[in-house]
Design goal:
2 domains; Rossmann fold
Length: 216
């Protein structure tokens, strides 16, 4: 999936990701008492170009003024209308090892529209335990709990050798979006959103640019 249709317009998925980043930056600026912002200011915060910011905002039909820039309150509302699901979306963490727990702590309570509703882990000492009020279930109950709690998104942090098997189980249970934090690539049907985070590739990319800079 490279584009999504919003208000009869096709918007690249990368633009959707940047809109989320813009909103976080705008909320921080608003908390500091700022009411308006220019494209070059957003660009500096997000490390993109001002042209890219203006292009993204034009795609969602939002314009600023030459004198004041963009109204932060109004822009946040427009982005929220695009990104947020009216009744919110329930999320599950699948795999509560050290990394899974770190992701749980990072995501928990960050966005009111994204609620962590369940945790799944096969460790008997964790099953039946609550973490900040979120219950940990056996993976054998995935289908039951996903349907009961109306969970749409799963954050996958299981051991690499179980990633494919667990991902299939999640899709079969009705999950519509998977964030794969394992090192194993997975395949999902076209109607399921997949984003994969390969930490090794990211580290190698960083190492490459460090090497290139030192060679100058």
């Amino acid at each position: 999936m490279t584009k999504v249709k919003i208000h009869s317009k096709e918007i690249p998925v990368k633009t959707i990701a940047r809109l989320s980043q813009y909103r976080r930056a705008l909320l921080i600026c608003s908390q500091k008492g700022k009411t308006h912002i220019f494209s070059h200011e957003i660009a500096a915060i997000q490390h993109v170009t001002a042209v890219q910011v203006r292009r993204d905002l034009m795609l969602i039909g939002f314009n600023g003024s030459l004198k004041q820039g963009y109204n932060i309150h109004d822009l946040v509302n427009v982005i929220s209308e695009i990104l947020d699901y009216e009744e919110g979306i329930n999320v599950a963490i699948v795999g509560l090892g050290n990394f899974g727990r770190a992701l749980f702590n990072y995501f928990y309570g960050k966005r009111s529209q994204l609620r962590i509703a369940a945790i799944f882990d096969n460790n008997m000492e964790k099953i039946g335990t609550e973490y900040n009020g979120v219950y940990c279930y056996s993976p054998y109950r995935v289908e039951e709990i996903v349907k009961r709690e109306n969970i749409k998104i799963a954050i996958l942090t299981v051991p690499p050798n179980r990633a494919v098997e667990v991902a299939k189980k999640l899709v079969d249970a009705g999950i519509k979006g998977i964030l794969n934090y394992t090192s194993t690539p997975i395949n999902v049907p076209d109607n399921v959103f997949l984003d994969e985070y390969d930490m090794i590739t990211t580290m190698e990319k960083a190492a490459f640019f460090v090497k290139m800079n030192e060679m100058k």
